[in-house]
Specification:
Helix content: 25-40%
Shape: elongated
Radius of gyration: 26 Å
Low-confidence stretches: none
Strand content: 25-35%
Number of strands: 19
Bound molecules: 4-amino-1,4-dioxobutan-2-aminium adenosine-5'-monophosphate, magnesium ion
Structural class: alpha+beta
Amino acid sequence: MEWVRIANLNQHEAQEVELRGWVYHHRSSGKIQFIVLRDGSGICQCVLSRSEVDPEVFAAARELTQESSVVVRGRVRAEARAPGGYEISVQDLRVVQVAAADYPITPKEHGVEYLMDHRHLWMRTPRQAAILRIRNEIVMGIHQFLQDQDFVLTESPILMGTAAEGGANLFETQYVNDEPAFLSQSGQLYVEATAAALGRVYTFGPTFRAEKSKTRRHLIEFWMVEPEAAFMTHDENLRLQENLVAHVVQRVLRKRAADLVTIGRDTARLEQVTPPFDRITYDEAIDLLRRVHQPEDEWQPLAWGEDFGAPHEAAITAEFDKPVFVERYPVGVKAFYMQPDPARPEVVLNADLLAPEGYGEIIGGSERIHDPELLRRRFEEHRLDPDTYGWYLDLRRFGTTPHAGFGLGVERVVAWICGLDHVRETIPFARLLNRLHP
Ligand code: 4AD
Ligand code: MG
């Protein structure tokens, strides 16, 4: 008998199959038992009738507790009312283990901290499993899109001798020879090197920021994809980003429709996510904030030169149906490596992509300074040691080209696509300000 995954039951209608999984719910009414089984791909109701299985099997099934592991054999029946649309008429059931009776997560409401303390078990619930499958779809969609556009995966190191983004949120540790070492905040500086070797590249890996902030969108350890391309202009950079994001959203809508239903995501807004996205300048965003501001708002309009906070980004995105680019920020609020706009050197050729429905920044990107003299001046202004960054300067000395790239935060994209109110559910084991366990 073939071992089948629940998600594929539609290919096995009326056949006899084997399912292997865990008991999610179990109820019994004398002559009949209903076991809702989960196997990681979905859930399926398995029906045992006393008249159709061995008496020992029927008796053993009665002892099953939540999360008991079992192997079930039976016939697949289409059942429109069943979750997933199929049911199993059980012929045989083998108990692998009757789970301890004190499984800590029950269908009743638990507090978030309790659930996070039990994350290793919480992720078994259908909603959490659906989110993790959607995350996987997003990650695979990113890889596929970039690979189809000839981007080569070149991994950046996690242990670095220099800081990429600088600032207070740098994780410091000690290298094997006692040199100070830092956990990567971004792989960007390294993909700038691999881009000059391979043309179009990306790195995809964990990044670390010792953020003291406790917000719904900050993780201490998060996953970022960072494409970088030699000769790519600012405008081409934005087009790449909107095509990537639209591709990923449409792929999730197509391939994870059932999971989106499980988590109760309203997909109407996601269906609109097709290129092109709107673009506004930083200056226009400042004006927009002034225009939409209401006395009861918890945020204040900003003066030119100030950076947006989460409430400002939410107010901006409220004016748009799809993600929106905010481009050309003041030099002073962005990183040292960003290329100034030749037409207006007080702003840089950058953009943040803000996701709708209040989610805010999901991508930060820019053209990079390619002129060695300008980069040297920036090192001085930012008090960066030109010796440590010598290799980065080399990239400008030997065949420099205009180039650009961006960083997309996976968890923020998962939160937005799933409509979650916090990034803690977007990653198997979240690392947050006050959470390093489990
Ligand atoms: O805007 P950021 O800081 O940009 C960079 O690191 C650039 N070096 C990227 C590049 O151009 N190659 O971070 C990029 C994205 C943000 O837009 C956000 O989605 C995500 O990374 N991000 C975080 N996600 C979760 N928790 C945090 N603490 C994050 N910080 C940034
Ligand atoms: Mg940013």
